[in-house]
Amino acid sequence: MTSGVQRTDHAALVRTVQSVWATELGVPADSDDDFFALGGTSLAAARIVGAMRARGVNTTFNVLMRHPSPARFATAILDGDGPARMSLPHVEDGAAPPISVQQEAIWFLEELRADNTAYQNLAVVELPDRIDGARLADALTALVARHSLLRTSFPTRRGRPVLLERADPVVHLDTVDLSAMTAAERERWIRDLGRRPVDRTEPGLLRWTLAELGDGGQILILVEHHFLHDGWSLGRLTTELAHIYRTGSSDGLPALPHRYADYAVWQRMWLDTEDAAVSRSFWADLLADPVGPLCLVDDARRPADFTFTGDTFHDRLPAAVVAAANSCARSLRTTTFVVLMTAFAAVVGGIGGSPDFNLGSMLRNRRVPGTEDILGMFVNTIALPIRGWPTRSMRDLTTELAEILTTGLDHQEMPFPRVAQALPRVRDSSRNPHFQVCFSMHDYPDLRAEWAPGRRAELRYPSNGGAKFDLDVVLVPDPNGYTVLWRFCTPLLSGTATRAIATAFHTAVRALASSPDAPMAAVLGDIVPAQLR
């Protein structure tokens, strides 16, 4: 029984589901109420699945999407409609296994360009109150002791990078006084800090800087290599650090029976299984019909080799846009994220003049029991086929993307580099050969860590001058809506052009949501400015 509960009392499980839904959705839920009609979002679904797992019920986002009422959800759980049993091995200390496939792809890109900082994460914790530097150092030491990946280096052995753990924690914490700087000077200093290369071959791929500001406040700056990082890991990292600082102990944090090295070994074993072959075929079949690249700018402006250099524009999704997307999602019985993704696809397709293209996105990839609380790069890239969007309706394309994503969650363990091996080979060093634009969302329940009782810190994401794709858009949800990170490749796009794309996206969401059955190109009309096309 994959559900983790005994098939004894369906009614009791329904009551549990109702209680969880009421807590996470903020409204009472009857047994036959519809998740989408109650205002369910992908973020709420992730919280519901997490709450069920905390109660010993093993289920997934996919199961909830396919059975969106408390009664149907409970039935599916009891019928075993959940993830197949997957278990991580326990790797011996000192084994130095090969890195994961996700890490390997980044390692290859960085070997090609030593100045590539696109895979170093830069974040700033806006502390709500002043904190004590010595106490912070103690909390960081406890955090590094808790997570073996933070004590790991990645040297090469026989030409292949491996995970090499060490027992003693290495903490990189600097303090700096930025109080004499203007805000603009401070941001340039932070950007330069994020550009300093992180040595993968030495432990401590995570650097912290506690900075004093002119108003007596403080910020905590984090620079970490992507080998340690994905969006979920960032949430775990900052939440756990704040917990240890606040309480003086790691007591109360989830036990960690496994570590990232266990996952890396499990992944290599799983890739040789029949399940992996099925998953690889699923993603490869979606992309079986080759399409040309999506060109947001004239190719005459494109360097011969992709530079991995860029900037970030921070946007706030207007309340009217969020309301329109939420309403459309309820009407189409899908999530707000899929509605926003569909509108975004239409906008960038209109700019590029491409009826057919591939759109990148990300899946969390933490279904395997034991991975939920481990730090590291688990997230898997996916490519979604956008075909014939100009003559299709919002309803039609949204429904198709929702189905692909829902089914794809059953195949989220497959790393994209292995999918790419099954696709026609494209030799083009000027761009990502499979997709050029990416649209994804942070799905950690709440990135605002609690540093003192009732006092939460905001996270922000300055640019370090790197870019992974031509355009990489990330939604960061919070209780009041969405911050949107527009990360763009500067040889191709300017800040002005990217802001114009964001404005067109806002307008497109509202227009398409109000006319979900009309051809999308007809609805967009002149929404995409002529100078962007």
From TrEMBL:
GO cellular component, one term: cytoplasm
Cofactor(s) this protein cannot do without: pantetheine 4'-phosphate
Molecular functions per Gene Ontology: catalytic activity; phosphopantetheine binding
GO biological process, one term: secondary metabolite biosynthetic process
UniProt keyword terms in alphabetical order: Phosphopantetheine, Phosphoprotein
UniProt protein name: Carrier domain-containing protein
Signal sequence region: none
Name of a matching Pfam family: Condensation
Source superkingdom: Bacteria
PROSITE patterns: CARRIER
Residues annotated as domain Carrier: 8-81
Listed PANTHER family: FATTY ACID SYNTHASE (PTHR45527:SF1), NONRIBOSOMAL PEPTIDE SYNTHETASE (PTHR45527)
Keyword Aminoacyl-tRNA synthetase attributed: no
